[in-house]
Write a structure and sequence with these properties.
The structure holds two protein chains of two kinds. Chain A is mainly α. Chain A has seven helices and no strands. By secondary structure, chain B is of the alpha+beta class. Helices cover 59% and strands 13% of the residues of chain B. Chain B is built from four helices and two strands, in the order H-H-H-E-E-H. Chain B has a two-stranded antiparallel ribbon with strand order 1-2. The two termini of chain B are 21 Å apart. The chains are: A mainly alpha, B alpha+beta. Chains A and B meet through helix 1, helix 2, helix 5, helix 6 and helix 7 of A and helix 4 of B.
């Protein structure tokens, strides 16, 4: 199995390790959403809630793995310096962690886009999932493949929320749609990270904004509704 | 023609009727209040009993349905569940 073509990106010293903190924060937020979606699914048996739960559980796991491998790789480099011996082991370790992150977040977004596609039948779901995984493994330009695929999924998801907002004019739906929109912008920004560190930092900031919007909606739905006994 | 109620809404309506009647209601009263056919109500009641949301008791010759703790919890969570589904576009 070929490793990703661009799998080690070292940010400037001042952002070293900070990226792991961002990613750990994303892990916590997506975990909270995943947990709530699971509870909603258990109570309602709503299929879309099930896909949402699956999607966010994979996305949450992807950020956990990414933050862990980032932190470990950065700790080793900080401690020993970037020598050839360190580089070889770190690169391999980092590569597999990053690869796992790419696959998991792609499949996670695929599940969420099933909601937008209005529940395709089981065969279609399996076929699309197999295609996505097969292309990821076979593609030489894995990172490019990842950004193209996730951009398509995020566009589908954003369009779904735009349609939902147009139909119901719900501010919460608009907030969620804006969150996924920021996530899309973040992904596109990350695609340019090789050109300048600023894109890497901006990508993290956009993703933070995205997940904070989703978290805000989750808190409004949970706490406001419980406190006031009516919909947020 | 009125839109067919969602399953979630039907379950909520049944549980709410029981709660609003001081947590004790006869099947006939439930049938009248729930606005369901006899067979549909029977199916829902069986499902709710299996899942532990309601329980059946007897007083003499009369049968009553009561909410369990799980049933009360469902009613409390219902608004949160529907808000979550609506706001995240999952309906």
């Amino acid at each position: 199995m070929a490793l990703p073509d661009k799998y080690l990106f070292l940010p400037d010293y001042w952002f070293f390790g900070l990226d792991s903190i961002f990613e750990f924060t994303f892990f916590l937020i997506t975990l909270a959403i995943c947990f709530k979606a699971y509870k909603v699914y258990k109570l309602s048996h709503n299929h879309n809630a099930k896909y949402f739960w699956y999607g966010f559980s994979l996305i949450s796991l992807s950020y956990f793995i990414k933050s862990l491998t980032n932190l470990s790789a950065h700790s080793v480099i900080r401690g020993h310096g970037f020598t050839p011996a360190v580089a070889k082991d770190t690169l391999l370790y980092f590569a597999w962690g990053y690869y796992a992150y790419l696959i998991l977040i792609m499949i996670g977004l695929l599940f969420i886009s099933f909601i937008a596609l209005q529940n395709p039948n089981r065969r279609t779901r399996y076929l699309v999932a197999l295609l996505v995984i097969a292309l990821s493994f076979q593609s030489y330009h894995k990172v490019l493949n990842y950004y193209v695929t996730t951009t398509i999924f995020l566009l589908i998801i954003c369009y779904h929320y735009l349609k939902s907002y147009q139909a119901k004019k719900s501010k919460n739906t608009l907030l969620v749609g804006a969150g996924f929109g920021c996530l899309l912008l973040g992904h596109l920004t990350f695609a340019l990270m090789e050109t300048h560190i600023l894109y890497y930092v901006t990508g993290h900031l956009l993703e933070l904004l995205a997940y904070l919007m989703l978290l805000m909606n989750l808190l409004m739905v949970t706490w406001y509704t419980k406190k006031h006994g009516k919909k947020a | 023609m009125a839109k067919k109620r969602e399953r979630l809404q039907v379950i909520h309506d049944i549980l709410r009727v029981i709660r609003d009647n001081r947590n004790k209601v006869k099947p006939t009263h439930l049938l009248y209040k729930s606005n369901l056919s006899h067979q549909m109500m029977k199916d829902y009641l069986n499902e709710l009993q299996e899942k532990g949301f309601i329980e059946q008791t007897k007083e003499g010759n009369n049968k009553f349905f009561m909410l369990t703790d799980k049933g009360f919890n469902y009613l409390n969570e219902y608004q949160v569940v529907t808000s979550f589904l609506e706001s995240f576009g999952l309906e």
